[in-house]
Amino acid sequence: MNYPLWYVPLLGAPMLIPVVALIHVVVSHFAVGGGILIWVGVREAQHRGDEEFLHFLRNFVRFFLYVTVVFGAITGVGIWWTIGLSSPETTSALIHTFVFGWATEWVTFVVELVSVMGLYYFWDRMKPGEREGVAFLYALSAWLSLVIITGVTAFMASPGHWVQTRNFWDGFLNPTFLPGVLVRTGGSLMITTLWAVFYLSWAGTEEDRNRILQWFSRWAALGALLVLVGGYAWTRAVPVYIQERLAERPTVFLVSVLLVGITFLLALGLWMSRTLREAATVPAVALTLLLVGFAGQMAGEFVRESFRKPYTIAHVLYSTSVYASDLAAWQEEGSLQRGRWIRWAAERVTGGNIENLEDADPEVRAAVGEILFTYHCSVCHTRRGYLAILPRIRELDREDIADVAANPPDYHPAMPPFAGTEEEAGLIADYLVKLGGNR
Amino acid sequence: MNSLIPSFDPQGLPAPVGLLLALKVFGFWLHLVFMGLWFAGFPVGLLLQLRQDTAPLGARLLKTMPVWIAFGVNAGVVPLLFLQVLYPGLFYTSSILQAWWWFAVIPLVMMAYYGTYLYALHGLKEDPRPWTRWVGWGSALLFLFLGVMFASTLTLTVHPEAWVDFAGNMKGGAFQGTWLYGSFEVVERYLMVFALGLLSVAAFFVVDTRWLAPSGDRAVRARPVVLGLVLAGSLVFLLASLPYLVRVRPYLPPVWHGVIGGLMVLTFAFGAVYAFLGSSNVAVGFVLFQLLNLLANAVARQVVQHHELIRYVDLTSVPVRFQFSPLLLFGGTLLVGLLAVFWMLKVYIRASRGL
Question: What is the pTM of this model?
Answer without folding.
Answer: 0.94
